[in-house]
Amino acid sequence: MNPQSCVHIHKEWDIVGARQLGREMAKEIGFSTVDQARIATAISELARNIYLYADQGKISYEIIYNNSRTGLCLIAEDEGPGISDISQVMEDGFTTSGGLGAGLPGVKRLMDEFEAYSEIGKGTTIKTVKWLR
Amino acid sequence: METKFKRIVLENSDAIVQMWMDNVRNLKDENYTTNIGDELYESTNREFMNVIFTSIQSQGSMEEVEQFSEKIINLGWPLSYITDGLQVFRRVTVDYILSNLDDMDDTEQIKSVFQSVDDWVEPIIRKLVNEYTGNWEQIVSLQRVALQELSAPLIPVMDRITIMPLIGTIDTERAKLIMENLLQGTINHNSEVVLIDITGVPVVDTMVAHHIIQAAEAVHLIGAKCILVGIRPEIAQTIVNLGIDLSDFSTKSSLKKGFMSALEITNRKIVPLEGKSREEQIKNIIDSI
């Protein structure tokens, strides 16, 4: 795929930049305020995961079209330690950092489509889509 | 050798300035400084040249450079104006000196031309860039302080009731500050109820929620009650989507409702002032006639 924009995550403040851009794109496409907040929150979670666990990575944004539907596709990529058991992190309340453990399962509920690939030592890629209703 | 070059440059400063001006004028069109008035641009350029020549003449005096950099910073011109300008000056001057030398094949001599021009220009670049970045650093650090002052205010609105309005993004550092101020303030003001208002928080993700929950629990530990207010509808929906459990906390949609229940908790309520209302007074007057 060919992402239209991309934000690199290095510092904690990059999370703010990432979700600002996501919110703006969502607004442009015509998402409702609630969906804008959902997308911004999802980006916040993904970006924070990158910052917390992988130190650095990037989030790419793309506006996609499918059967006359419009959607915003987010791809979070990092080259961090990877996730050993994806099904485990998708359970509510599972955390290795002392947080709430609602991050990834939360993103899945906030968005419409969710895919995660991870390889130990290589990194993690999470692709998620929100369709315009 | 070096004094010879210097003499060439200083004696022909007008020609060099002219060459430099022509070059820099082209720069103006193709990049940053297009919105600057021609007159100001010309006069600043002239001043820039004066500064450079004064510095060369006086063996690297920095006072003029400092004043000039201050002026450019105040004008808000980009740093690239200075660096590009000095690059052009370097190129023009080297060209000029070389074209005025008799022996063009002497590589040693050419090398020393480059060397001495570099020696003139480099301290100026260093000084100007330092001044410039120093100015930015100062602005950033001032803003950081200003931000910190804004970050976790605590308002004791009335006896035993305290409000903490949160506005803007909450990061780890700020979350710590919120916790500290909240606990310290609760004890200092002897509060029974603390209202945390998140109307101005743009995104509540799991980290922010986690920090707020922790803060509320800590407040509970020191014997006060925490009410979370200002939860906008879209934030309520994302909190539910994220699966964050706030059922242990009292929450209210608005600060007003939160304040009412805080009064209730502290056994108080708002009562209108005693005395008859204006309409009643008028009615009484009419009746008495």
UniProtKB/TrEMBL annotation, chain A:
A Pfam family reported for this protein in Swiss-Prot or TrEMBL: HATPase_c
Domain of life assignment: Bacteria
Record GO terms (molecular function): kinase activity
Keywords: Kinase, Transferase
Histidine kinase/HSP90-like ATPase domain: residues covered: 34-133
Kinase recorded as keyword: yes
Record-given protein name: Serine/threonine-protein kinase RsbT
Species annotation: Oceanobacillus indicireducens
UniProt lineage: Bacteria, Bacillati, Bacillota, Bacilli, Bacillales
From TrEMBL, chain B:
Top-level taxon of the source organism: Bacteria
Short name of any one Pfam family annotated for the protein: Rsbr_N
GO MF terms held by the record: heme binding; oxygen binding
Domain (STAS) ranges: 151-262
Classification via InterPro entries: Bact_StressResp_Reg, Globin/Proto, RsbRA_N, STAS_dom, STAS_dom_sf
Keywords assigned: Phosphoprotein
Name assigned to this protein: RsbT co-antagonist protein RsbRA
Organism for this UniProt entry: Oceanobacillus indicireducens
Gene: rsbRA
